[in-house]
User: What shape does this take?
Amino acid sequence: MAVKYTRTHEVAYYECDVNQTMTFPAMIGVAIKTSEEQSDTLNRSAEFVHQFGLTWVITNYHFKINRLPKVGEVIQIATQAMEYNKYFCYRNFWFYDEKGNELLMIESVFVLMDIKNRKMASVPEEIIAPFESEKIKRIKRFPAITKVTNGQSLPYRVRFYDIDSNQHVNNAMYFNWMIDVLGFDFLTTHVPQAVNIRFDKEVEYGNEVMSHYEIIAEDTIESRHEIKIGTQLYCEANISWIEK
Assistant: This one.
């Protein structure tokens, strides 16, 4: 059984939007902090991984949301490195309220990237062993992401504070570009239920990206998103919503 790690977090006002609920970048930040703390306790910190010339990169998130955390709320975040194969590591995160009710669950896919050539590397047993994850041969698949077919777009310039210590755009920033285009009226009258997002390429400082989107309201409400530079796809997502 994989090792589970839990920490407590009080949701700050600066982690929330006008709805007084936690933003996607804030939730991602807290989740990643939790996984980093677990790695530190197992002596598998970022510095340890860097000794192999490698760094962790996230390629996918899949959110299932019951309720977003609220400002001032004290929550528990748990994480577990579930499974891995030659190239992919599958880690889950759970957010709970003070009564232990599950607020949301995030499935994620991590890969190791060679710092010099920026290519994906195989997973060394020495790095992964302390997490006691199950070794599997298959590749886990998330649902296919539906493309934007008849959408609109807005430009965004990559700012200094959008990039992280890897000198590429932090994955959490893609959510800002995708959510912002939906507009104040939509975002104050709808709440997300599920998110399926895939990161295809790294965006660097100084680039200008186009955030393409469309909202499909049929049996359910879904927003479809693509982050592109020219014709090159960098990130894509589908988000399911319900009206308040």
Notes: The chain has a mean pLDDT of 95. The helical segments are 24-41, 46-50, 125-128, 171-180, 184-187. The chain is about 15% helix and 40% strand. The radius of gyration is 18 Å.
